[in-house]
Structure formats: C-alpha cells, structure tokens
Amino acid sequence: MSVLEIKGLEVQVTTDDGPKDILRGVDLVVRSGETHALMGPNGSGKSTLAYAIAGHPKYHITGGSVTLDGQDVLAMSVDERARAGLFLAMQYPVEVPGVSVSNFLRTSITAIRGEAPNLRTWIKELKESMNALQIDQQFAERSVNEGFSGGERKRTEILQMELIKPSIAILDETDSGLDVDALRVVSEGINRVRATGETGVLLITHFTRILNYVKPDFVHVFFDGRIVRQGGPELADDIEANGYAQYTAV
Amino acid sequence: MTAVTEHEVSLVPATDHSPQIRSLDLADFPALVGREEEWRFTPLARLRGLHTGEIGAQSPVVVTATSLGGATFALNGPKDVTRAGFTDRVATFAWTQIADVATLTIPKNTQVAETVHISIAGTNGVAFHQLDVNVEQFGEATVIINHSGSATFAGNIDINVADGGKLTIVSIQDWEIDAVHAGHHRVRLGRDATCKHIAVTLGGDVVRLLPSVDYEAPGGSAEFIGLYFAGAGQHAEHRLFVDHSQAHCRSNVVYKGALNGDGAHTVWIGDVLIRSNAIGTETYEINRNLVLSGGGRADSVPNLEIETGEIVGAGHASTTGRFDDEQLFYLESRGISADEARMLVLRGFFEDLLNQINVPEINDGVRTRIEERLAGIR
Question: Cβ B336–A107 below 8 Å, yes or no?
Fold first, then answer.
C-alpha cells in the first residue's frame, strides 16, 4: 500500500519574460488501488503537475511538498523517483534512436527491480504484454519511439507501465490522439494494471471520453494551477454535459 | 537524434580537394601554416613538430607480428625508392625518417585462416614507421594492427591487394591519452580485389588518419569502416580519399563517431572522385556523429565529384546529433541513471557498425574499451 501525498505544491517555469507561476498550491493524495481523474482545460497546469512530480529539470519547485510513503520525492533524482515507484506515461514520448525497445525495457526493468530479470521469463512476459496491447512483436527490435505513430507511442507507454508495475502511475493525456480502437486497447491495459490493486492511477485528461473505459474513483477539476473542485465520477458527467466554464469563472 | 550541426557539405569540385602534390621528397611540400584546406581542422601546435620537422628525441616503436599462419613478416626490409609519392607532408616526412620497411606478405593463392596480429607499441618518444601489407593474387587474410602505448608517431601503411585478393585490415588506435598519431593508409586494388579497411580510434591526444584507395584495374571493391570516440580535449580526424579511376569498381564508406566532454573534436572528410572513365562505379559514403555530452565539435564534410553520368550509383550522407536533455529525462524517468542512459545510447549507436565490422576478435574488446572510455577510464 503506497501513498503519494502532494501538499501545497507551487511550481515555476522560466520563460523569456522571466519566471512564471504555473502551479499555485496543489493538494492531492493518491493511494495504490485508487484511480483519480485530473480534468481541466488546456493550459491549466495539469501536465506541469505530472512533470514536476517526475522531476523534469524545466520545472522549479517554489513551495509545498511531494512525498511517497513519507519519503521526500522532491529530494530524489529523476531515476530515483522511478525506482521509488513513480511512473509517468508521457503525452509526447521521446524518440531514442539506436536503442531498441527490448534493450530499453530490459535496462529499465533491471534498474527498477534491482536485478536483471530471468531471460526466459522476461521474454515471455514481454511477449504477453505486447500481445495484450496489440503491439507487433517487431516493435521490440525497433528504436524507442522512432517513427512510431501517436497511437503506437501511447501503447508503448502503457506497455512500460504494465511491465514496471509502479506503485503510482501518472498518465498524462494518454488518451489524446487515439482513435476509438486504440483508446479501447490502451484503456484495457490501464484496467489490467488497476485490477492488480497495487497501483494508484492519476489520469490526466481534458476529455471525458477515456472515463467511459477507465472508471475513476475520484474526479478533480484543475484550473489556473490548482484543484478547484473535487468529487466522484458524477463530476465527470457534469463536465461532459456542462463544460468547464462553471468551475473556471474567475 | 536531433540534427544540431551539419557544419558544411561542400559542393566544391573534388578535384580541388584531391591531392595536388605527390612526392617522396619533403622539399616538394611547402611549410604549413594551418590554413591549408587539408590542415584547417588540425591543431598543428599539438603535433609536436611532426609537421615542421622540429621533433624531440626519437624512440622507435616496438613492432611484433603474431599468429602469422601462412603469411610472412619481415620486420626490417630494405627501403625502396620506386614507390608512389605521398600526398601528405607528414606522411612524406615519415618516409624520409625511416631506414627500413616492415612487410607482411600473404602469398599467392594462400588463405590465411587465423587472424594475423601486428602490435605497434609506443615507447614515449618520437617514432616513424612504414608497414607494407601485400596480398598477392587470390590471397586472403584478416589483419589486426593495434597501436598502443604512448608516442609521437608518424606511420604509414601501404596496402596492396593484387588481382582477386581479399583483405580485411583493422587499425586500432588504442593509444595512451597523450599520444600523437599521424598516418596515411593507402590501399591499392588490383582486378576484382577486395579490401575492407577498418579504423577504430579510441585514444590519443591527436589522431589524424588518411585512408585512401586507388584502383589499378576494373572490378575492385573497397569498404572503409570507421569508429571513433573522442573524450574531453581529444582530436580524432579521419580524412578519406576514394579515387575511382577505373570502371566497374565499388566503394562504401561508413564512419561513426561519438564525442563526450568539452573540447572533444572530431573531423571526418570524405572525398570521393569518380573520374570520367570510371563508368559503372557504385559508391556511397556516410558519416554519423553523436554528441553525448559537453561542448564537443564534430566537423563532417562529404565531397562527391562525378565526372561521368554512366554510373550505378553515388550518394553521401552526414548527420550530427546530440543526446539531448529530453532523451535523458525520458530514460531516467524509467529508472535508468544518467551514466547508464549514455551507455545505452552509445552502445546502440555503435552496435550496427560493430556488426558490419564482423571481426569477432575485436568486437568484444572494442565494446569494452568504448565503455571504459565513456566511464572515464583513460
């Protein structure tokens, strides 16, 4: 049982016009086994929250705290955060030419589990996860994300999540750019991870579409760098019917 | 990788780049000032006088040949006066300084099954050397030449592959970090002869190699593969000249290099000339550079001049990419440390090249040495 606790988080980015406040005091608790949907319009700071938790150097923490099971996440390097149990499925997964998917995944799994996986079990595990996400086996030998379509990249992100088995997974707009079939396949992947009960999911999206497949326990409305409303799944229905404007009026 | 620098792709006719002087007499070469086309990337001040003749105390390299099989090796053969003139001032200087010539011979119709090893070890002084590798008609061999130790070294290798001969020759520059190495590696191919020349440059303060090929009859095939790694402050330069002067010959040049740290400088020049009579030529050259960290500089200049349209194909490509912060973040976010991430990317970058080199004796060693270099071990 893991707990990610975000308290009063404030984050700045450096722009050409000087520092700019993006997050203005975010409070959120995600426990393993729970699914939280973080919804909000474009530019509200949702992705900043995801990248700040993962430790992207572009984001400067100016206040607040983030802990995982009481440990100070903000004091950890990016790779330490991943080894501690945090996972970020990125909105724009990066191409890494020359590094094959299988080599990348094996290196990652070895780092996270602290030992190299048994080769035979590993190949089987990889194959099953790829099949479940309808990823062609040939992708294992292709360079990471190089020449992948948007949908292929997102599926590969979920593949990584399934193999890594994080205690807390943040999925940053994993649904964007997916057609109906791909959305279903990706959602099934997320649901398999949820079904283990060992991963807490923070699903960042601005559409309610994915929530038809991945049912959240909690819904948070995000606007202007903070959470402005919290509720159950019914909140998503309300957003679908009435839009964000009712929560975002200044 | 993001393409960040592609310093220049010269469209100046290659005849402007092809050698103007061929001589065994140093007096035929004007003194260098550093602005000459073929020297403009080289840090002359770090050549320790190889370019001026004002050199320190000489201390010969120790040369040994092992695993000869059916090949023969003469360490101190006579110096001839009939060979083709060199086109490079330092190569010519080396010629004027040597007293004898070492010769490896692969006799006619002999296939040397074992890989021949030649070690050239520096002894902390200035040294000059001339090695001839002669593959007689239909002879076949694989030769690995390993340069090690420390030296200020000017050494030429003349590689002659007679009709139907087949040679794979690997030159490994695994010098100590303070070594200086200048060398001209001249391949001459007879009818239907094949040579695969592989340069692996890992160590040394300055390494400047000039691999070239001349075709003496139709049907020759030359492959040049290069792998280089320049750490902080190192200069690794490879200038190739492929002179298609005969019909129906092939050439393929693949060079890849990685730079790690401030002041790392690599230079790759690929001059390919297809003369008007060289119909049926097939040539391709590619250079890829990867900047792993720091402010290194990769100069990459392919020059292709075609004097006849009746060819099978000709092409070139050059890219320089940087392992950027977003790629690093992505790999780190999967639990991989920054050092491991660079290693992963570097291994991937060189893997296909190592497969192309396909000399099992060196692949593991080169992998290990690259990883040691990346980890900062020498």
Answer: yes
Q: Helix A119-132 crosses helix A150-164 at what angle (to 10 degrees)?
A: 140
Q: What is the pLDDT along chain B (378 residues), one digit of tens a residue?
A: 444 444 444 444 445 557 789 999 999 999 999 999 999 999 999 999 999 999 999 999 999 999 999 999 999 999 998 899 999 999 999 999 999 999 999 999 999 999 999 999 999 999 999 999 999 999 999 999 999 999 999 999 999 999 999 999 999 999 999 999 999 999 999 999 999 999 999 989 999 999 999 999 999 999 999 999 999 999 999 999 999 999 999 999 999 999 999 999 999 999 999 999 999 999 999 999 999 988 899 999 999 999 999 999 999 999 999 998 999 999 999 999 999 999 999 988 998 898 888 888 888 888 888 888 888 765
A90 interfaces chain B, CB cutoff of 8 Å = yes
Query: What is the pTM for the complete model shown?
Result: 0.86
Expressed as residue numbers, the domain containing A128 is 3-248
Contact B329 A164 (CB under 8 A): no
**CA-wise closest residue to A190 among A179, A181, A199, A177:** A199
> What span, in angstroms and rounded, lies between the C-alpha atoms of A196 and B147?
57
Q: In B35-87, at which residue ranges do the beta strands (DSSP E only) sit?
A: 62-66, 72-77
Burial B26-45 (b: 16+ CB within 10 A, else e): beebeebeeeeebbebbebe
For chain A, what is the domain count? Answer: 1
Q: Which residues of B touch A107 (CB under 8 A)?
A: 336, 340, 344
Q: For the sheet with B152-161, list strands across it.
A: B72-77, B101-106, B126-135, B152-161, B180-189, B206-215, B235-244, B265-274, B297-306
> What pLDDT score does A61 carry?
97
Q: Which of B1, B256, B329, B353 to mutate to test the interface with A (most CBs of A within 10 A)?
A: B329
Is the Cβ–Cβ distance between B59 and B91 less than 8 Å?
A: no
The CATH number covering residue A92 comes to 3.40.50.300
Report the residue from A56, A94, A99 with minimal CB separation from B348.
A99
Strands (E), chain A: 3-15, 18-31, 35-39, 59-68, 71-72, 86-89, 96-100, 143-144, 168-172, 200-205, 218-223, 226-231
Q: Is B330 on the interface with A (CB under 8 A)?
A: yes
Q: Give the closest of B321, B335, B347 to A79, CB-based.
A: B335
